[in-house]
Amino acid sequence: MKKYNELTRHEQEAYLMLPILTELKKLGGQSTTKDLKRSVVANDSSIPENTLTDFKTSRKGSKYLPFNFSFNFAVANLILAEMLKRPKTGIVKLTEKGREFKGNGTELSEQVYKVSVPLWKNKSKRNQSINDTGNNEEVVAKPDEDSDDEESWRSEILSALMNLSPAKFELFCRALVKRMKVDIDENVGTKLTGDGGLDGYGYITTDDFRTSRVAIQAKRWSINNSVSSPEIDKFRGAMDKFRAEFGIFITTSTFTRDAIKASRAGTRVITLIDGDKLIDLVTKYELYVKPVTVYKLEDFFREEN
């Protein structure tokens, strides 16, 4: 069987349909597109772990995630085939038809394309921005779920993080965790050496009176260098040394599936923040970034008079 990256874009799209239905069932039948995407990548061993941070450069110089094309088209086709529906932007939900599907991946994609391809063709006749390839196998279009602008600024943030020195990245991570209501201890984990394996340490108070110790680990690694389970084990050892009840492991790359399992083992679960989630948190807390409002014209202005 071919690996995911060895498949054509259309084959990737067809392949993703079954994992999308499977993960949606695990997530309770409804999910944000972003969480669904992460769940599919995390639980399918054939998909590279760095898929959601592996940005490419287009001929025009803009950044994009190849995975988004296949994923978004898979979702769009499942919606056309009434396996999924979109209650609102950014949310997908299983339909009764999607919940009841019991076949394999090939049966699913064949069933979906039987419905969706004619619909894409009809749409292409009305809208020349959709290019029908005419071979009943692939229709070139771009759903609106992930805009070029979003992929571009996400790539820019990740690139900026990668360009930080290790010491400055650790400082950045402590600043981020502080924004998340953790009171940073200036005496632990703030030195380049002799920190006992920690890059930060602090305290968080919940329920107005309960205070817990939080250990922080920061790894500014390249996207092709995933954090493995031994790194999680070493961090857990450092947590033990400082009696930390909680651990936060932050990286610009990704975590191997074994690392994710290791983080959930034992009595203390370690929170993992990979490059993709890190970008979300940077924008959520507006840490050294500023939001910019952009307006785009809707289809009304492009439709025939």
Please, could you describe this protein's structure?
It is built from 10 helices and 12 strands. It has 305 residues and is α+β, with helices and mostly antiparallel strands. It has 2 domains: 143 residues; 122 residues, 3-Layer(aba) Sandwich (Trna Endonuclease, Chain: A, domain 1). β10, α8 and β11 form a beta-alpha-beta unit. α1 packs across α2, α1 packs across α3 and α8 runs parallel beside α9. The termini are far apart. The relative contact order is 0.10. About 4% of the residues have low confidence. It is an enzyme of class 3 (hydrolase). Keywords: Endonuclease, Hydrolase, Nuclease. This is Restriction endonuclease.
Shape: globular
Low-confidence stretches: 130-141
- Beta-strand share of residues: 15-25%
DSSP helical segment count: 10
Nearest-integer average pLDDT: 89
The helical percent reads 40-55%
> N- to C-terminal separation?
50 Å
- Strands of the widest sheet, in order across it, are 8-9-10-11-12
Number of strands: 12
Radius of gyration: 22 Å
* Classification by helices and strands: alpha+beta
Helix-strand pattern: HEHEEHEEHHEEHHEEEHEHEH
What are the key terms here?
305 residues; 2 domains; 3-stranded antiparallel sheet; 10 helices; globular; alpha+beta
Q: How is this fold's topology laid out?
A:
Elements: H1 9-26, E1 30-32, H2 33-43, E2 56-57, E3 63-64, H3 66-80, E4 84-85, E5 91-94, H4 96-100, H5 105-126, E6 131-132, E7 139-140, H6 148-162, H7 166-179, E8 183-184, E9 200-206, E10 210-219, H8 229-241, E11 246-251, H9 257-264, E12 270-273, H10 275-284
Parallel strand pairs: 10-11, 11-12
Antiparallel strand pairs: 1-5, 2-3, 4-5, 6-7, 8-9, 9-10
